[in-house]
Design a protein that fits this description.
By secondary structure, this protein is an alpha+beta fold. It has a domain at 20-109: HIT family, subunit A (2-Layer Sandwich), CATH 3.30.428.10. It has two helices and five strands; from the N terminus they run E-E-E-H-E-E-H. It has helices spanning 57-78, 127-141, and strands spanning 20-23, 27-31, 41-45, 82-86, 104-109. The protein has a five-stranded antiparallel β-sheet with strand order 1-2-3-5-4, covered by helices on one side. The radius of gyration is 18 Å and the shape is globular. It binds zinc ion (ZN). Zinc ion (ZN) binds at residues 6, 9, 11-12, 48, 101.
């Protein structure tokens, strides 16, 4: 996972005057420097973790609980029509992440905003293709979705 903190990472070294919404020992939340929309919040772990899949369970839980609380605050303060939660794992370093330090974007959306996220969807695949993809991922997950543990309810069959 690498060092806890990287000297050359802007998300490990916040500039003075950063408009924080929340700070604790595990994470911070702040208003994005170049927001997609007003009240665009970033939720960022303090330790330098690059990808979602590398987050340890307790930090994962904390980040999502914080994201939920902040989404509630965003709803109360700016009354958006929708909220988008976005994050990226830039697995090959092709620029999906401008800052290679994990973050969750909370982006309030308004009917009249000019934000366009073009998904560029493929034509609808066959059910056979979708079923095959599902089977491949089930196999990759392992038994019980790879989540077997005392706190995970298993599916009744
Ligand atoms: Zn960092």
């Amino acid at each position: 996972m690498g060092a806890e903190r990287h000297e050359d990472c802007t998300f490990c070294n916040w500039a003075a005057g950063t408009p924080f919404v929340h700070e604790d020992t595990l994470a911070v939340a702040l208003i994005d420097r170049r927001p997609i929309n007003r009240y665009h919040v970033l939720v960022v772990p303090r330790r330098h973790v690059v990808n979602f899949i590398d987050l340890p369970p307790e930090l994962l839980t904390h980040l999502f609980r914080l994201t939920q609380a902040l989404s509630r605050a965003v709803r109360d303060v700016c009354r958006p029509d929708a909220i988008q939660h976005l994050t990226d794992d830039d697995l090959t370093g092709h620029g999906f992440n401008l800052v290679p330090h994990f973050k969750i974007h909370i982006i309030p959306r308004f009917q009249a905003d000019r934000v366009r996220i073009d998904w560029g969807r493929e034509p609808e695949p066959s059910l056979a293709d979708r079923s095959q993809w599902a089977a491949q991922l089930r196999a990759a997950l392992g038994g019980e979705g790879g989540l077997a543990g005392p706190d995970v309810p298993s599916r009744s069959r």
